[in-house]
Amino acid sequence: MLQSRSFHRTASNAAHRRILSASRNATSTPFFDRVDERMKRDSPYKYEQYLKGKKNAMEKLKWKLEDRNRKMDKWYTARKGGDVNAGVQNLDSNIDQSISYQARSINQTKTVSDFPSTTLRTDFSTNSPFNKFVHPSSSQPTKPSIFSTIAANIQALETKHDDNNPTSFLSDLFQPPKETPRQKQLRDKAMVYHPDHWETYHSIMSAVLSDEKTQRMLSKISKDSKGGQIVEVVKKWLLSDERVVEKEVVGDRWRGLDEVWREGWSRGASTIFEHSNKKVETFSVASIVEDASSADYEEEEEVEVEDQVNSANDAVDGGYESKLLSELKLQQDIFISKLLSAKPELLEDFAPDFEGDKDQHSQSEKEALAAAEIRHHFHKVATRIMSYLGRYCAKRSRSDPMHVAWYKIKESGLRLPEDCISTFLYVVTTMGGNSFGFGSEALLLSSKSLSNETETEENEENAFLVPEEVATYHDLLCRPTESSVSLRVKTLASKGDTETAEELLEAFKKSIQQTNSDELIRLRTYLPILKNYCESKSISAALSVFKRMQSTPGVILEPENYCLLLATMAENGCFWRVIRFTKDSSPVDGAQSLGYNHSCGPELFDEIATEMATDALEISSSSARRLSNALAVGFKNASQPGVEGGNYDDVVSNLKEVHPLAPMPLTRQPAAANELVACRVQLDRSTGVCEVTGSQQRLILLEPDQRKQLHDDLLELSQTQYRIYTQGMAAYDKHAAEDSKDKAAEQLQLFSNWLNTREGDPFTAIVDGANVGYYMQSFDKGRFNYHQIKFMVDTLEAKGENPLVVLPNKYGHTNFIYTSKKEYQELEESEIDIMKDLTRRGKLYKVPPRCLDDFYWMVASVSEQTASRRGSDLSVPSNDPTGRFPGTRPMLITNDQMRDHRLELLEPRLFRRWYGCHIVNYNFTAFVMDESVDGNEIRFAQADFFSREIQGNESPLRSHASAGEGKWGGVAWHFPVNDWDLDERFVIRIPIKVNS
């Protein structure tokens, strides 16, 4: 009896438990979490009220559940004694009390006395006052309450209850709600899409179908009745949330295609997209139906899509077909047969009319021909719309619709054009929440709840499914590309199969060499492999991959890649001078075979850091913390000499791990000679000396070949800029339209030749004339001032320099426009005299019209000035006896910050070295016309004394009393950090003991 009571109570509370479960599930979904967080952030008061209401609702639901249990216990007790009427009366009494409580709580005008308890048991018609009970806030009568339903069912069961089976009537007493059509569909998970995926896909597909371009295309096809029918069928299929073909059928076919893809890679990349020599019997659909698109589709890209589809069909009709095309054709047959089984009237409408004897053609032949025509037109329309969908998603960075769209492509066997499948590959590769184009909650082809653990595992597997299948489709249909291989490599690496990912990448790299392809492998393809090896502490494999990355033309290594490798090696003790030969620390196997001179120790760190200095200019603060923490872990026993396992060379380490988000403090205390250094320091701006390590920074100058490269880059950049300018000004300036496209480069080359062939003293200072003339002239009545230019030239000459003023062409005239408001400036006689004097002395160069003066003074600063220099070095040493301030010559006088986006096209390292060596800033009090304050002088900001790039310099050899005999040294590596001050560096020095 206790078991029956337990079962009875469980059944009576089933509905309420479902409500509670649904409430918990609803409030725990990411969507509701985001809503709660947004409300909490934006409106604290509303959020507090919301929590109170939520708490009250849950308490009310809990009270109803407890009240129901009490009532059913009383009813069950009465029934146990055999007196059913007593139990019903007891229940009626409780119901009366409950209704009276509700009526009082809502100030109902009628009282419980208006609803006698006998009515509850004897009158259950729609005219019963109880069934017409209306909530004051409701405008319509509500449905009969659960209490009236229970009472009615009890009365009906009074004559047929069975005391020997107390639970026989429970299914009648508590009948489940009628299942809705949607709930019925959800039960068959294999035939519906996940609601979240479907909603996104449906909204975007609806937008694509309603687009003007799509509507125009569909209207052309719908001109005849058959075309209109096909359009309607395609639209219904695209907007249906039910699958036509089961997942298992489609999945088996794609698993087979994936095996073909893998077998192709095992034989060589070039074989996976070749047609087999197997002959097949095919018939041409085009011979049965007429191509309706020959005269209808006028737009160029629509014709292109049609041509690509027809070319694929021609390949099949030509007597051979690839494995993919063969499987697509079989899938098309399955899809069309299922589609027609649901709409058989299409066969009758598309049945061909034969002339002559109609009886000689069987019904099956007619249906086959009709099905072939339907398939032809269906796939033509569906392919076009899917192409539009791919472009829509690519333009708007949306990958969510691919979950549903890709399955529809698979189940229908669509043969997509090459540009369309490339677009799909781009969408699933580069967009979304993670590297595979989908978020962490990717739920491909699933209709289970997120809370289901089985579905979670299935979703994690499916998160890789769509990108992999798109890549397989792309490779088998077209040819493998870097994008498709990159996607496969990322997928394999994410699954932990790093070795297979590496083999695939190397096979693709080999195929590029065999076919002389211009395909380039990028950093994004190698990086997942490198990260996996580093995370698994496979140092040898990581170093091997890294060396291959360095030698791959398309891979441009970033500072973070070097930091990843160095940090991993540091954590595993690879930079010890004397290595502990244990499982935690050992020499890097194969390091010397990769080209390194050392397999461990500080020397190996120096070799990798030297490579980093050639590829990177600076690091981030997070990378600096990462390296510091890695060295702290790798050298945690460095301050304990003589421990079991070997000699630690008496290296001392005071490093401690810091939080990855904590700022790194500035260190000013000089380090001991044998102390490991990894900290933030500030360099002396005037000397470049590091107060922690004692090393001095160098000013790294442009090498002759680098100067030539910068010169040639400026020529090319000027030509590109001039072409853009003339294209934009052709409609307004007839002279710009008539000029040669190469005029800018030709004029700049003439200027460079003039500098190299001119006689006389070489120029040691190049003046940005426009910058100096407009300096501090933003006040009212301010103007382009020649007196400021003369002031600059006179000052430079007084300091022993030979200046050249580079001036835009318009400022070489007596009047010109000088503001954005088209205001004209007329030069005064004194200013004209200054201009003529500079021209006469050969110290003024006017840039040709429509040419950018920036390129001219940049070229002048790197010009060899062959004839005038006569092989002499123009640089000024720090101890010059004449008092000239030291630095590279010619120096460039300008306050231009070089933020022009065009200059970003220059190689960053060359640009930074050029900027640091040649740019000299200035400051003086502005002129008002020809007047200036007494004692006005120009203060120059000297060019950089040391280069702001990664560099390693030897630390001074020093001895240390606690470290025994010998002296300590080592290379101190200073890394500029992009979010620190200009003079601050992150420094690493691994000390090396030099025996005396």
From TrEMBL:
InterPro entries: PROP1-like_PPR_dom, TPR-like_helical_dom_sf. Gene3D superfamilies: 3.40.50.11980, Tetratricopeptide repeat domain (1.25.40.10). Residues 1-20, 161-182, 869-890 are annotated as: Disordered. Residues 1-13, 869-881 have a biased composition (Polar residues). It comes from the Eukaryota. Residues 476-578 form the PROP1-like PPR domain. Keywords: Repeat. The keyword Repeat applies. PANTHER family: MITOCHONDRIAL RIBONUCLEASE P CATALYTIC SUBUNIT, PTHR13547. This is PROP1-like PPR domain-containing protein. The lineage of its organism: Eukaryota, Sar, Stramenopiles, Ochrophyta, Bacillariophyta.
